[in-house]
Write a structure and sequence with these properties.
The protein is an all-alpha fold and 122 residues long. It has 3 helices and no strands.
Length: 122
């Protein structure tokens, strides 16, 4: 279960989140030093906001990890969806040219379905 979070993609994401979390505290410290050196209210507000941004990002990341751990790993595999197929009804009333075109499309559809089922059998 936890091995899913040890793939190269996830390890890079873990490192990125850790680096950004630490960076928000360095940015908060930098804004605090600017505020103490005579900066205005903007520096004081950013000194408080940067650590909050870090914790907010960490909170979202933990939620993302929980979703990944509770996700069914087979849901991304192709062929799990149930597809109900209904042959199209060919309209033969009215325009004979349209009826011929619809019959041609139905024939193409049947060929495509036949090729798809033949390729699955091999």
């Amino acid at each position: 279960m936890w091995t899913r979070l040890l793939t190269p993609k996830w390890v890079l994401l873990h490192l990125l989140v850790a680096a950004l979390f630490v960076a928000t505290f360095f940015l908060g410290y930098w804004q605090l030093s600017k505020a103490e050196a005579g900066g205005g209210a903007v520096n004081w507000s950013y000194a408080m906001q940067w650590p909050l941004y870090g914790f907010m990002g960490l909170w979202f990341y933990v939620r993302m990890l929980k979703v990944e751990l509770h996700r069914d790993p087979d849901e991304d595999e192709p062929g799990n969806a149930v597809v109900l197929y209904q042959r199209p009804r060919i309209d033969t009333s009215g325009d004979p040219e349209l009826a011929a075109y619809n019959a041609y499309l139905a024939e193409l559809n049947e060929r495509a379905l036949g090729q798809r089922s033949a390729s699955r059998g091999h």
